[in-house]
Amino acid sequence: MINHAEACPPLELPSGAMLRLSYNGTFPARWDARLGWCKQPPRKTALANVRAAGGVVPFLDVVVLRRYGWQYMEGGVASSTLNCCGDHH
User: Fold this and answer.
1) Torsions phi, psi of 31, nearest 5?
2) What is residue 19's predicted lDDT score, i.e. its pLDDT?
3) Which of 13, 21, 66, 89 has the highest CB neighbour count under 10 A?
């Protein structure tokens, strides 16, 4: 909810209160589905379907194919060098 901190019946909402929905966190429902809180866990979202400005992503499904060691840059004003540390698994 935006501009209202406490839950209340929809017909008693103040005029400035709004419901905040995010693109990444909402899904179409069947035409005869009862709307409201879902008892089942949130639906998985593939990384390809996530929009950058789409808001919160409730459940992201990813597969890690490869893991690399840590890499970081170290340097001063005159030069910079790349140091790699950590092992590959």
Assistant:
1) -65, -30
2) 80
3) 13
